[in-house]
Specification:
Structural class: mainly alpha
Number of strands: 3
Radius of gyration: 32 Å
Mean pLDDT: 76
Strand order of the largest sheet: 2-1-3
Order of helices and strands: EEEHHH
Low-confidence stretches: none
Number of helices: 3
Helix content: 55-70%
Largest sheet: 3 strands, antiparallel
Strand content: 5-15%
Length: 126
């Protein structure tokens, strides 16, 4: 037994438009049973279970709408920030490796001595 609500049926109104069976207009008078529309999965109505639970728990529709709108926006923004920071970290590592290699190879004995001194200083600092 699950606590999920029953799936919402989609019906076709006499004017040819489609609507959810639980949101029929007040003027709708069904002569016979409404025509059930079998939709393909890519045409399925959005799942409103989370919104119904949220509205049933007492928070307002504005809060639900804000969560629906700003949730993906926040995820996108945080992903973009993380990607930028990762790129900057990669650039910092690549540039410092490049500077180290250039100083060590071009600097001659002085460059090697400077690189060795820096290596010792780093090991002592740990």
């Amino acid at each position: 037994m699950t606590n999920l609500p029953e799936p919402v049926r989609v019906v076709q109104l006499p004017d040819g438009t489609y609507t959810y069976a639980d949101h029929l207009p007040a003027t709708f008078q069904p002569g016979a049973a409404p025509q059930i529309v079998h939709q393909h999965i890519h045409q399925a109505p959005p799942d409103r279970t989370v919104q119904r639970i949220a509205l049933g728990s007492g928070i307002g529709a504005g809060t639900v709408a804000a969560g629906v709108y700003f949730g993906p926006l926040l995820v996108g923004a945080l992903t973009a920030i993380a990607a930028n920071l990762a790129l900057l970290a990669f650039l910092a590592v690549a540039l410092s490796w490049g500077v180290h290699t250039v100083v060590k190879s071009i600097g001659g004995p002085d460059g090697r001595a400077a690189a060795k001194t820096l290596t010792r200083a780093r090991r002592k600092g740990k």
